[in-house]
Amino acid sequence: MIPLPPKLDDLSFALVAKLRGHGHLCNVLTHVGSGNWHAIEQAIATILRPRARAARLGAIGRNIVELIADGRGITGPIMRSAFFDTVTCEAGAQEAKRIKRKIAALRERMRSESRRPDKRDLKQPTASSVEYNLLTKAPAPETRGLSKAA
For the segment 31-85, what is each residue's pLDDT rounded down to a tens digit? Predict the structure, then answer.
């Protein structure tokens, strides 16, 4: 992983400190990150990267992006406010705007990826029983095991 520029590295540290110091957000993120605050800091650092891609976000990063971007429930607005207040305080309003746009773009990409079927989930065309029987020279499934008297 390419290290963050010092400014963004300090910002990810400040964000983790702020979020960890907030009672409710600390509980939520501890749950999301399974208690691994190093992984949470790495996820935040990945989100802050100018060239971050939704496809490269892990589960923790995706959950953090959803919390910030969607602003749903009790936690969403609290998370969004704490996150962007800290970014504005530490890095300035311009950087906060850039990161806000970045997170919105990541979330939109996550939505579009979830709507697109995975190639592995697309069913491959299968041979019909007639084609199968022609290829294998097996009797048709309807006649297999049936007596002519029936």
Answer: 999 999 999 999 999 999 988 899 889 999 999 999 999 988 999 999 999 999 9
Average pLDDT over every residue of 140-145: 55
Helix residue ranges, H only, the chain: 6-21, 23-32, 37-48, 59-70, 75-91, 93-115, 129-136
For the stretch 106-119, pLDDT in tens is 999 999 887 766 55
Q: Are 10 and 89 in contact (CB under 8 A)?
A: no
Q: Where are the domains of the chain?
A: 6-118
| Size of the chain, expressed as the number of residues it contains | 150
Specify the 3-state DSSP secondary structure of 69.
helix
Tokens in use for 60? 């923790």
d(CA 46, CA 1): 9
Q: Are 39 and 33 in contact (CB under 8 A)?
A: yes
